[in-house]
Amino acid sequence: MPTVTIHILAPAVAPADAYDRISDFSRYPELTTTVQDVVVRPPSPDGSVLSEWTVHFRNGLLKWTERDTFSPADLALFFEQVTGDFAVFRGSWRLSADGGGTLVRFDAEFDLGIPTLAAILEPVAEAALRGNILKILAGLLGEAQEIVVDAADPQVAGAAQP
Fold first, then answer.
1. Using one digit for the tens of pLDDT, what is the confidence trace for 46-67?
2. Using alpha carbons only, what angle is made at residue 23 by residues 147 and 160, rounded to the nearest 5 degrees?
3. Sheet strands side by side (includes 35-40)
4. Is residue 69 within a helix (H) or strand (E), and if so which, with residue range?
5. Which of 32, 81, 89, 161 could bond 135 through an S-S bridge, CB–CB 3.0 to 4.6 Å?
6. What is the DSSP string of 95-149?
7. What is the DSSP string of 36-58?
8. Residues 107-156: pLDDT tens digits?
9. Is the pTM here over 0.70, yes or no?
10. Which of 35, 34, 7, 1 is nearest to 106 (CA)?
11. What CATH class has 3-160?
């Protein structure tokens, strides 16, 4: 199953502030034309929310509803599609302090559910997801840069653990 992992350094934003901004999904359509609409439903008793997404992909739209689970104390949030166009779409956002700024790690795995076209569509979907996340983070966090990390680095590896 294809996965996307992105590390972003936002040197001028504190982790708690970055977390609040990333958790505000309703702002995402303002930050990239690819995200057409996000409707965030009221929280359920367990604190999770359902968010309904409409995103441009190739010559059409992808639509899905995901359950978003927030863990502000851990600076993490998790999402998993409950209905929609993907066969599988789930992942997480994890933030950690980096000097006076924030290191953001976005992880997602997805399956478009079209095995015969997987070799063609999955690289396109992966590139689109990566590009959109980078645009969204630049809009949310201002000065932000993608960084290449060494997975053997204990700080980075620790930030990636569930």
1. 999 999 999 988 788 989 999 9
2. 40
3. 35-40, 49-57, 60-71, 76-84, 88-98, 101-111, 3-10, 145-146
4. strand 60-71
5. 32
6. EEEETTEEEEEEEEEEE-S-GGGHHHHHHHHHHHHHHHHHHHHHHHHSS-EE---
7. EEEEEPPPPTTS-EEEEEEEEET
8. 999 988 877 877 787 888 888 888 889 888 988 998 888 887 665 554 54
9. yes
10. 7
11. alpha beta
**Angstrom distance (rounded) from CA 74 to CA 97:** 11
CA pair distance 96, 100, nearest whole angstrom: 11
Measured CA to CA, the distance from residue 124 to residue 154 in angstroms comes to 32
How distant, in Å, are the alpha carbons of 21, 31, 110, 117, 122 from that of 2? 27, 25, 6, 13, 7
**112, 131 Cβ separation under 8 angstroms:** no
Report the length, in residues, of the chain.
Answer: 162
Q: Can you name the residues that pair with 28 across neighbouring β-strands?
A: none
Looking at residue 12, the DSSP 8-state letter turns out to be T
- Which burial class, exposed, middle or buried, applies to 52 when counting CB atoms under 10 A from its CB (0-12, 13-18, 19+)? middle
Residue given tokens 């303002």 in the structure block:
30
Structural tokens at position 144: 């932000």
